Recover the amino acids of this structure.
């Protein structure tokens, strides 16, 4: 059986962020069109990965059950390194996982993945409007998303989906600002960061922010 495009990319000398993002976009389009290939999901692929992994992207996304990265980008086992928290909230474990993916696994692209109607962002928007914080550890999620809510309000954005887009962009920036290792990787051209918002109904991902050497038709030149 001939290798899939992702397998070919992983075997190349070192794929560029643009190479990786192009294949992820193509996979997402297949998913939207209902013609997913479901690559690298068989026993042979499972066995081939027992000795190590060589993913081509790290996807840091929301934990929402409707946002399964491998499905919406039509990839399989060993193709992407996935990190998920509610509202794609950053903490030390997330930063450590991202640093591992870039410095140890040598992954050239970080995708920050948010989605419309996000429950965590909705809670932060409602908390900001009411002045009331939620109980328990949900408060911690809201506190970490609130700076994005404030930034959105300063830009005249009050709706949840607009705030999600702002939060995705803010998260991209915070990742690079918070980690010297990730900042250095971007500055050296070893990796890039792209922020994407996902439509739950339509299934499509749209780029809304980028840092480093990665391009997308949706982003301003």
């Amino acid at each position: 059986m001939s290798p899939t495009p992702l397998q070919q990319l992983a075997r190349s000398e070192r794929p560029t962020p643009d190479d990786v993002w192009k294949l992820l976009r193509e996979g997402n389009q297949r998913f939207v069109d209902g013609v997913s290939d479901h690559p690298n999901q068989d026993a042979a692929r499972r066995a081939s990965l027992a000795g190590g992994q060589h993913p081509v992207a790290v996807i840091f996304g929301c934990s929402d059950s409707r946002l399964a990265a491998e499905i919406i980008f039509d990839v399989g086992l060993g193709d992407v390194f996935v990190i998920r928290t509610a509202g794609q909230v950053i903490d030390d474990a997330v930063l450590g996982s991202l640093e591992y993916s870039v410095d140890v696994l040598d992954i050239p692209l970080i995708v920050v993945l948010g989605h419309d109607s996000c429950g965590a962002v909705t809670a932060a928007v409602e908390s900001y409007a009411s002045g009331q914080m939620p109980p328990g550890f949900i408060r911690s999620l809201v506190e970490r998303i609130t700076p994005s809510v404030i930034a959105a309000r300063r830009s005249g954005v009050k709706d949840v989906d607009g705030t999600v887009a702002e939060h995705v962009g803010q998260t991209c920036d915070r990742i690079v600002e918070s980690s010297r290792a990730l900042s250095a990787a971007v500055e050296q051209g070893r990796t890039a960061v792209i922020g994407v918002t996902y439509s739950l109904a339509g299934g499509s991902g749209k780029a809304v922010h980028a840092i480093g050497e990665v391009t997308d038709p949706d982003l301003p030149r």
Summary: The domain at 5-211 is CATH 3.40.1050.10 (Beta-carbonic Anhydrase; Chain A). The beta strands are 57-62, 80-85, 109-115, 192-198, 205-211. The chain has one domain: 5-211.
